[in-house]
Specification:
The complex is a heterodimer. Chain A is mostly helical. Helix content of chain A is 37%, strand content 9%. The N and C termini of chain A lie far apart (33 Å). Chain B is an all-beta fold. The chains are: A mainly alpha, B mainly beta.
Chain lengths: 185, 350
């Protein structure tokens, strides 16, 4: 499908220190747990990884095993010997969550300016978030300013709910989205 | 009542459940204006169905009278009654437009209009009911002539928009067609002589004080000399034209920007509707319904509009459509992503 690297010389960033979660505590079904940046980051990060696999390396199924490990940040972009976080496709800082207003904004950074997949990536992000978050949540999904050649057009399309609704009635597209594991816990 | 003086409340009359997906649009049957006819409206949804709702004359409560299903295979995006109230047209993402006739209480699909390449998004009958306009994602607007025996013939395909066309609306008295689009503009289509071709005579775009993002909907005031548009740019805009000049056959009179209502909406405004007595209702992605009226001050600099009332959390999710009942004064219906329809009464608090 793809011969050669789309982006041969990606910019590499430092990884962010991550706070530890208390994994010993059993989840309480009835506790009100605010949805935080890190949680959304985890959902999206897993997504990005799976997305890259499904586009470029469909046969590399064994990699999926890795996603069940807790160290998803360290998983390599199939194109590069760097992890997705090091490539800054998506970072925790790019996720803005306002629990009070039930609002989420995700800013993602395509690794190349002419990334033709930006719309599809954004659409998949939206669908996964729609399915993972309570329905009252409002969300805006956009590419980071200055990172894509047709930034305004991509953003407009991703946030037009009529277009999104129509796209999701396309069986091929929906299959693609559905093929990813259900990330709702 | 003097709306500006009273303490107003938008009172929830009833919440209608039945659709199993987001409700995109609703339309009041115009025959509702007659006093001896029960009020009726249609709603359409992402669940691929259309529902007909009727008010019981005795209990005043609303019930679903019919479910129109198994015709459209994808989302039904909008619906519109013919002026006589006898036919209902529905536009679907399945690229077709269906025409339904009420035969003794049962709705039968009597015609299917094919031609659009993909999603049909909106439709509208002209004032006399002789023409039907449809529009869609293929950037075109189609004008269909209503022929005897439920036949529809395409008169013209209007091209001009550079992106998908979100909504079409005929002028309430003249055969002038308005279309609003994802390309941020509203286009006005007019035919100089009765049998001639429609052509785009005006584009209300950013350079003429127009919108800076998708225009989702538009609505006329009762006289037909003003129109309001709503947009993803979070504003409403009011436009005005000298329709007396047009009605006297003096040629086309252009629409001019009158004012912009900005700073009121927080998210995309999907729907706007002007009541017969001058109240503009808006439905938006911030789950709120807002009402605006022409302000009495500020006549020095031309008319201005002010927020009359804001109903926060009118629905649990985005509001896709708000429509005033044509008969009963101050009865408003709203449709939402939360799958419900609500009926509201504008009342003055004691």
């Amino acid at each position: 499908m793809v011969s050669g690297l789309i982006n041969a010389n990606p910019v590499v960033y430092e990884k962010k220190e991550r706070r530890l979660r208390n994994l010993a505590t059993l989840p309480d079904e009835y506790a009100v747990e605010p949805i935080d940046q890190q949680e959304i980051f985890d959902i999206l990060f897993l997504l990005f990884f799976l997305l890259l696999i499904s586009f470029h390396y469909a046969s590399y199924c064994y990699l999926i095993f890795l996603t069940f490990l807790n160290h998803i940040r360290d998983i390599k972009d199939p194109e590069h010997p760097y992890s997705l976080e090091e490539l800054k496709v998506i970072t925790e800082d790019a996720i803005e969550v306002d629990h009070e207003r039930s609002y989420v904004r995700v800013t993602f950074t395509p690794t190349v300016e002419h990334c033709s997949m930006a719309t599809v990536i954004g659409l998949c992000l939206r669908v996964k978030l729609m399915r993972s978050l309570p329905s009252r949540y409002k969300m805006d999904i956009r590419v980071a300013p200055g990172t894509h050649a047709t930034e305004a057009a991509v953003n407009k399309q991703l946030n037009d709910k009529e277009r999104v609704a129509a796209a999701l009635e396309n069986p091929n597209l929906l299959d693609m989205v559905d093929e990813w594991p259900n990330l709702k816990h | 009542m003097d709306l500006l003086d009273g303490n107003l409340e938008l009172k929830e009359v009833q919440k209608l459940q039945g659709h199993t997906d987001r409700v995109w649009s609703l339309a009041w049957n115009p025959a509702t204006t007659a006093t001896d006819v029960p009020a009726v409206f249609a709603s359409c949804s992402g669940d691929k169905t259309v529902r007909i709702w009727e008010q019981s004359p005795s209990t005043r409560s609303w019930d679903c009278k019919a479910v129109l299903e198994e015709t459209h295979t994808r989302t039904v995006r909008s619906c519109a009654w013919s002026p006589s109230g006898k036919l209902l047209a529905t536009a679907s993402f399945d690229a077709t437009t269906a025409i339904w006739e009420n035969v003794g209480g049962d709705f039968e699909c009597v015609s299917t209009l094919e031609g659009h390449e993909n999603e049909v998004k909106s439709l509208c009958w002209n004032a006399s009911g002789s023409l039907l306009a449809t529009c869609g994602r293929d950037k075109t607007v189609w004008i269909w002539e209503v022929m005897p025996g439920n036949e529809f013939e395409c008169l013209q395909v209007l091209q001009g928009h550079t992106q998908d066309v979100k909504m079409v609306q005929w002028h309430p008295t003249m055969d002038i067609l308005f279309s609003c689009s994802y390309d941020n503009t509203v286009k006005v289509w007019w035919s100089e002589d009765a049998d001639g071709d429609w052509s785009c005579v005006q584009t209300l775009g950013e350079s003429s004080n127009g919108h800076s993002s998708t225009v989702w909907s538009l609505s006329f005031n009762a006289k037909g000399d003003k129109l309001v548009t709503c947009s993803d740019d979070l504003t409403l805009k009011i436009w005005e034209a000298d329709i007396i000049r047009m009605q006297s056959g003096d040629g086309y009179a252009p629409w001019n920007h009158l004012c912009t209502l900005s700073g009121y909406h927080d998210r995309t405004v999907f729907s706007v509707h002007w009541s017969r007595d001058g109240i503009i209702a808006s439905g938006a992605a911030d789950d709120a319904i807002r009402l605006f009226v022409e302000s009495k001050d500020g006549l020095m600099n031309g008319p201005s509009y002010q927020l009359l009332f804001k109903k926060e959390k009118a629905h649990d999710m985005d509001i896709n459509s708000v429509q005033w009942c044509p008969g009963e004064k101050h009865l408003l219906a709203s449709a939402s992503d939360d799958g419900t329809i609500k009926l509201w009464e504008l009342a003055t608090l004691p």
